[in-house]
Design a protein that fits this description.
Length: about 160
């Protein structure tokens, strides 16, 4: 009982008004620091989400490019539907990649159109020098596409690494 009385006396002797005022004064900075910390965490989360979304968009462009080049090299031909699908899948390349890569994507699309239309024309041609010349151009475009396919990892590498 004596101990309880001593604790009670001690607690009643404390300057509770002064303690309350000090705690009240500390509350505002604590709330401010907590709010700043939460805002910083939200900023980090949004930044990381942006990086992941950008990575996904760039990876989609790479996947579509690989798919088109693989189809062209496997069959030696492309349909216009395949070229249009590629164009739609890579339409945002100029917004998520640098100008050099975007220009490469445009060149791949243009050559894919040539391969597609040239194949259609060659299928209706009679054997001769003109057909042989078109086959040569077709082969040149397919070789160019093969070279681009082999170089894609190096070109896209800096865009597809997450820090």
């Amino acid at each position: 009982m004596v101990a309880l009385k001593a604790v009670s006396d001690f607690l009643s002797s404390l300057p509770w008004r002064d303690i309350g005022g000090a705690l009240s004064a500390l509350l505002t900075p604590v709330i401010g620091i907590t709010t700043a910390h939460i805002a910083y965490q939200q900023w980090q989360t949004n930044r990381d989400r942006f990086r992941v979304e950008l990575y996904d968009r760039r990876a989609n462009v790479l996947r579509a490019t690989r798919k088109l080049l693989a189809m062209a090299l496997q069959r030696g031909d492309l349909t216009m539907e395949q070229v249009e699908e590629f164009a739609a899948a890579t339409a945002e390349a100029s917004f998520v990649l640098d100008g050099k890569i975007a220009e490469l994507i445009r060149e791949i699309r243009n050559r894919a159109i040539q391969v597609s239309t040239r194949h259609d024309v060659m299928s209706r041609m009679q054997p001769g020098e003109e057909l042989a010349a078109m086959r040569g151009r077709q082969g040149d475009d397919l070789q160019w596409m093969d070279a681009q396919d082999r170089a894609l990892n190096a070109r896209f590498g800096k865009y597809l690494t997450l820090p």
